[in-house]
Amino acid sequence: MEVNKIYNEDCLTGLRKLPDNCIDCCVTSPPYYGLRDYGCDGQIGLEQSPSEYIDRLTEVFAEVFRVLKPEGTLWLNLGDSYAGSGKGAANYPDNAKKYKQGSNRGTVGNATGYKYVTACKDKDLIGIPWMAAFALRDRVGYYLRNDIIWAKPNAMPESVTDRLTKSHEYIFLMSKSSRYYFDHEAIQEIATGYDGRKDTIFKGSQKYIIPVMPHGNRQTMAQGGHQRWRFKNLQEDGQQPNTMHLRRAEGLPDKQYPVRNKRDVWTVSTKPDSNAHFAVYPEELIKPCILAGCPKDGIVLDPFMGSGTTARVARMYQRNYIGYELNPDYIKIIEKKIIVEQDMFAK
């Protein structure tokens, strides 16, 4: 098993070559259902029905489950699709040309096929992300731990007039075991000014003196006083790693900040990338996934490497990666960018 390498092969074929329990963390975003044709035989996303799409994802992530260490986690980014309303990207026949060799972008349009959805009416939101999450939980055995909302402040405008513009996607945090590696301190946030309260001590409330919880127990933490937030020394931008020892070495005073655990709504703008394909998730989006989900020198897996963001962020933070990508043109772009970035870090 060679790390820091992207394999030009179908991910299911590649995953089956990996030994059991060898991967620390998987961070990935599969092709969305019925959205684009990336011009590769065997690609996922062009199935004739949502159930076929979910079946294929389940097959892939069952192998991911096998290769994850017992303490491993899966961070799965998925967007939703609408049943065949004739309004989606999959319904522009003029753009449905076959993939041209040397082009690094997938096409949109009729090449993806009309979404033959028997269980949904035209214009129904299908619920693809939750279908996938429930399938991986119920059919594979993952623990479903979080539904993280990726809120996009610069979401793509939509011309629809009978519903709201969609400006979010999901990231599901799933684990192989009930206890797993999760470095919550690595992604804690500064709590200064949090919800308008300046008093960092919660003094307790007598209304919790009676049992109010469903299991009949008292909520003793809310009843008594406690510190609202922990205090840590952080870099000036509020992110890890801890820099207290560096400040002390320079004769500077310690800086303490109130911190809180990261919330499950992440506001991250999309970023354009002229060298990659359409579906590029930003580095800031998956940075918390890798910092919290994979120890240093561990291995991050991405079965759908695409534009290579997972690989680049993994190397940026001293993690290794293994990836799979069907399109050889994407791999060339990714490898070139990683070499350039690592050269910059070395300087």
Question: Can you tell me about this structure?
Answer:
With 347 residues, this protein is α/β, with parallel strands linked by helices. The protein has helices spanning 11-15, 50-67, 128-140, 220-223, 244-249, 283-293, 309-316, 328-346, and strands at residues 5-7, 23-28, 36-37, 68-78, 107-108, 143-151, 168-175, 189-190, 201-202, 226-227, 230-232, 257-260, 265-267, 299-302, 320-324. The protein contains eight helices and 15 strands. The strands form four sheets. Strands 1-15-14-2-4-7-6-13 form an eight-stranded mixed β-sheet. A three-stranded antiparallel β-sheet has the order 8-12-11, with no helix packed on it. A two-stranded antiparallel sheet has the order 3-5.
Give the helix tally: 8
Global mean pLDDT? 79
Given helix and strand content, the structural type is alpha/beta
Q: How many beta-strand elements?
A: 15
The shape, in one word, is: globular
Low-pLDDT residue intervals, each spanning 5 or more residues: 85-114, 236-241
Strand order of the largest sheet: 1-15-14-2-4-7-6-13
The residue fraction in helices comes out at 10-25%
The quaternary structure here is single chain
What is the radius of gyration computed over CA atoms, rounded to a whole number of angstroms? 22 Å
Tell me the major beta sheet: 8 strands, mixed
N- to C-terminal distance: 30 Å
Percent range for β-strand residues: 15-25%
Order of helices and strands: EHEEHEEHEEEEHEEHEEHEHEH
